[in-house]
Every structure is written in C-alpha cells, then in structure tokens.
Write a structure and sequence with these properties.
Elements (H helix, E strand, L loop, with lengths): L8 E6 L6 H11 L4 E3 L3 E2 L14 E2 L2 H9 L3 E7 L4 E6 H9 L3 E5 L2 H10 L4 E6 L3 H11 L4 H15 L7 E4 L3 H13 L12
Parallel strand pairs: 1-7, 1-8, 2-7, 3-4, 8-9
Antiparallel strand pairs: 3-6, 5-6
Length: about 200
C-alpha cells in the first residue's frame, strides 16, 4: 500500500512571543522523519523584499480576504493589533496537505488555535513556552530590538496565553533547542502507527 494513502494529521503549535517556537518548528521540519508540512498562512499585508507568494504567505487583497472570510474559507482569521492587516489559515491549504498524507503544522496563536479546535477537535495540540514569565521577559529584553512599551505589550499577551495552556494536550518547555526538537519529534512519532527514527541524520 502506498504511503500516500496514509491519512494526514493536523498539528497545532502555539506559544508566547519569545518562546522560540518558530525556530523549533523550522528545526522540526528539517530534522524529523515524519511527513511534516508547515501550513502557509494568508495575509493582506504586502510582500516584503524576498518573500514569495505561496511560499512565505498567500498574499491576498483586502477584498479577496474579506470574501473568503465571509464565505467560511478560513479555519481561523484575525486582524493583528487593530492595524487593518489580516492573517488567516485557509481550509483549502490544510485540506490539500492532509489529503496528500502530510502532517500539517499550524503555527498559530492561542485564540486562533481555540477557533480551529472547534472545527478540528482531533488536532494534536502542543504549547511551547520557556518555563516562566520571568524567563520569557529575560529573553525578550535580551533581543534588544523593541521598546520597553512593546515588550510590555508582548508580556501582557503572553500572560493571557500562558493562562490558556491547559487547553492544549501537550506542553513542552523550551530550555535547550536540541532537546526541545527531539522531545517534539518523539512525541509526534508516538502518534504514528509504526516505529520510525526521529532524526533525518
């Protein structure tokens, strides 16, 4: 039987800004043996230099995004920071991956995850965080890329997200990146119907 007939799985990975989840996901995609695929989000913002439509994001006009949102074509969609820029997860993108037997990863915030779970309750949910709000604050301040006010806004959001981590099936503390990636791959492999090595190396 072809491997392509194996059903795909939906994986939701969330975590507060500064938790390192984006780096973890990129390493997971590169190193884990499972047929993982990162869902490409749609957005109304303009492409930045070097960004490719369909690879980095699906870049949509405000009109097109609104039409799709009103037609129920998004699993979740959100206006970010009230600035008029929308981001969302297209049902068609997720379905295409799952139908190909891919394990589709949604790297989305907690509010988006809760919306998706109402539609896709079978999703594997994982919350990644640095262990404490104190550690998160240290990481954000060490970046040195944002004002104290911007950092405080991120911390306020993170505090709300940490309070909702109980909605996730799994919780992983990201203290050391190699260990975190190994934990995640091992965890996901347990959902697979057969034993496979975790590392592609």
């Amino acid at each position: 039987m072809s491997q392509m007939t194996n059903p795909g799985r939906l994986i939701i990975i969330s975590g507060p800004s500064g938790s390192g989840k984006s780096t973890v996901v990129q390493r997971l995609l590169a190193e884990c043996q499972l047929p993982l695929e990162l869902s490409v989000s749609a957005t109304t913002r303009s492409p930045r230099p070097g960004e490719v439509d369909g690879k980095d994001y699906h870049f949509l006009s405000h009109e097109s995004f609104t039409q799709k949102r009103e037609a129920g074509e998004f699993l979740e969609a959100k206006e970010v920071f009230g600035l008029g820029t929308w981001y969302g997860t297209l049902r068609s993108v997720v379905s295409a991956g799952l139908n190909q037997g891919k394990w589709v990863i949604l790297e989305i915030d907690v509010q988006g995850a809760l919306v998706v779970l109402r539609d896709q309750p079978q999703a594997i949910t994982i919350f990644v965080h640095p262990g404490s709000m104190e550690e998160l604050e240290n990481r954000l301040r060490k970046r040195g890329t944002e004002s104290p006010e911007a950092i405080q806004r991120r911390l306020d959001v993170a505090d709300q997200e940490m309070a909702l981590k109980g909605h996730y099936t799994h919780e992983i503390i990201n203290q050391e990146i190699n260990n975190t990636v190994h934990q995640l791959c091992t965890l996901l492999t347990q959902y697979h119907g057969e034993t496979i090595p975790c590392s592609k190396n």
